[in-house]
């Protein structure tokens, strides 16, 4: 085919792609490269960026205890909230899966918190629920437990955000539900004839058949958790307080960039976040071949 | 036939019936237990939201330390006073949020369906590479591109306007929606395009007259999610809007917290309830679309 006819054939495709192409270069490629460049500079938005090589990264790793603190907080949050969220999602999905009337209602009610999850109203609500004299402690008092100062005690504050995240288990639950529906029923019937226990059925049928969906949920929720921002920002008053116990990586990045205008340093932080997410996603994909088997691969 | 033989014949039948009855009884008992568990779990899930609504009607001294959801004396004026509690009234904030949200929804649906149509239905050289790049943008955390984007908009003089919040939406910046629509477009029969092409339809005509009308569920799903995410968006407005007159509802809510004299909790909750009301209304109306959209694409 001649170049011209190929061009003519490709024309409509590129016309339709134009808005995305412009956006892709201006909003993704250019900013990514610019942020990489800025991460090697000292830049305060007033004076021109000054090239300082690896100094931002060096300072970050060697001296910046807040950087390490924010990493610690974020990792703790991811490792606590993601598994808990997925376990809740799976339990509720399994209860909803079979022989239940009014599934639609339950599904909607369980999902509602997820849809409101990012809103500031919910973050404000959470602050009040976990206040020293808030609802959570009132409820605990009914059982004779004196609740801690959830928000002002650094050893508890992160758990309030974990609870907030777990409360939004609705979307992985819906995906699990779709996955459960796709498992052929005759597998369970065969297991019943062999008098398999419920636990055996769960680990020998449900988990392996659901592995691709579990994997999908895991990766998605992990990436979301690494990026979460508004809840921590609102509940900690934008500073990561008390004692930096809510200093999420994104909160730290935001304050470096927009409170102190250390744009170069914040860009370096951004790149660290990008690399962390990429590495963790890669690890998930790499290990998945040992535990995720797709139906059509077996032949 | 004697009574004795008929009784003999009936015995296994009766036993089978008894076993069946036993099984239904067991199933029913399991179902009731499940419902009890589900109703209790639903209550725990929804309680915080109910508490927020209840608190929006309570006087201050009843809000804290109380589990009860029923206000002793409903303070409806929490709503009217909260509406005007900040230096700028909530009429402004709702109007600002509405403008940004409506423009974003239009931008997202249009530009993303354009890109999705190209990827799903048209042939062009380099398609595989562009597609791979598009999927990779799903991975990039917004915080990485945020700073250079901010600096660019700063230089363009767009900071303190709605342009940084709206213009990117017309450039298909949310790859999730492209992905969702591609999934949907691919399910439509190819013969439709071919027949239309033979009839002399241009690709644009096919997109406009065939693909779009048939993809209403996908378009609606994208529009709903676009609405909810823009309405709730906090980081974008926080970065780009500095003048209180331009604030969106989430930024206004945050002002209740930063005020030193936060004593009007009832008013704060009243405005919080109003801020999520549009989302709840959308959710009630479009619940089916939203849930199908999740199952299809795995968005949050």
TrEMBL record, chain A:
Residues 71-284 form the ABC transmembrane type-1 domain. The chain crosses the membrane at residues 12-38, 73-96, 108-126, 158-181, 202-223, 229-254, 266-286. It holds the Pfam family BPD_transp_1. InterPro entries: ABC_transporter_permease (IPR051393), MetI-like (IPR000515), MetI-like_sf (IPR035906). The keyword Membrane applies. Belongs to the binding-protein-dependent transport system permease family. It comes from Devosia yakushimensis. This is ABC transporter permease. Gene3D superfamilies: MetI-like (1.10.3720.10). Signal peptide: none annotated. It is found in: Cell membrane. The keyword Transmembrane applies. It is a multi-pass membrane protein. Keywords: Cell membrane, Membrane, Transmembrane, Transmembrane helix, Transport.
TrEMBL record, chain B:
It comes from the Bacteria. Residues 94-286 form the ABC transmembrane type-1 domain. PROSITE patterns: ABC_TM1. It is a multi-pass membrane protein. It is found in: Cell membrane. Pfam families: BPD_transp_1. Keywords: Cell membrane, Membrane, Transmembrane, Transmembrane helix, Transport. The chain crosses the membrane at residues 32-54, 93-117, 129-150, 162-185, 206-231, 268-291. Belongs to the binding-protein-dependent transport system permease family. This is ABC transporter permease. The lineage of its organism: Bacteria, Pseudomonadati, Pseudomonadota, Alphaproteobacteria, Hyphomicrobiales. InterPro entries: MetI-like (IPR000515), MetI-like_sf (IPR035906).
